[in-house]
Amino acid sequence: MSSPAIPWEDESRRFAREREFVRRFSRRPAGVISLLVILIVLFAAVFTNVAATHDPIFTDFDALFSGPSGAHWLGTDNLGRDTYSRIVHGARTALLVGVISVGIGVSIGMPYGMLAGYLGGWKDEVMMRVMDAIYAFPALLLALIIIAVLGTGIFNVMIAIGVVFIPGLARLVRGSTLSVKEMEYVLAAESSGASTWRIILQHIAPNILAPVIVQGSLAVGFAIIAEAGLSFLGLGTQPPDPSWGSMLSGAQRFLTSQGSLAIFPGLAIVLTVLAFNLLGDTLRDLLDPRLRGSD
Fold first, then answer.
1. H-only helix segments in the chain
2. I need a labelling partner for 55 at 20 to 30 A (CA). Which of 145, 163, 186, 227 fits?
3. What is the mean pLDDT of each run of 10 residues along the chain (295 residues)?
4. Model-level pTM?
5. Can you tell me the distance from the alpha carbon of 204 to that of 176, in angstroms, rounded to the nearest whole number?
């Protein structure tokens, strides 16, 4: 007679897997560096009042176009506002839009794709043709159409970008669901009479999280670029609130004389988006079973 299972065995195996994942992640320099950059941006976004040195909307007409100095680390703009503090406050907007818009896409696209893939047949065809119709619109054009309907503002930008993410995530999740639903544990749950949503939530969703996590991390970078572009066009963050995109928009008049006004927010966008992309690539390599043997 076999001995009963020890309750802490599952916990020990989980901790062992987590330690192994951390060990493999630490051996990826690109992933470690990208994570550090994201943590720095996250600190600036969460503890904005600590990281910033000035009020981002305070105008100092005695310090117009001031160069980098001890008082203004990255100089000031055409209204005497501190560039460094505006970049720090812009980090909050960038991450907020990135996280919430991706959250909207995942919260709708993931259950939609799982349901379509699990049901199959004509229901799957109808549901995915709806996604294909939305996916046919270029991402930026679709976002512009939604903002034209809802109006300008940062919250409407989050909704617009989130809707843009839904079709791609739904297609990704559907493909993963089609392979997972043929597994033995799903077939066993079906034979036991489990409901459709119970099978989806308990047996399918946990086993398709890896590609969703990877795609989500990559999507955050795209959302940051999209928000910057929409704010550059005057459709996102409205003045005087700081945003990396609106800072670039205000700097375009002074590119020849004060190029640093565009360089610093541009670097913030490039470094943050690059960090999320590298993190997504690292997670893809670590979570893909076909690539685990290369570590």
1. 8-26, 29-46, 48-51, 83-119, 121-135, 139-150, 154-180, 184-191, 196-199, 209-232, 244-251, 260-287
2. 227
3. 47 79 90 95 93 90 85 89 94 94 95 93 93 90 92 92 94 92 85 85 88 92 94 87 91 86 94 95 81 54
4. 0.88
5. 9
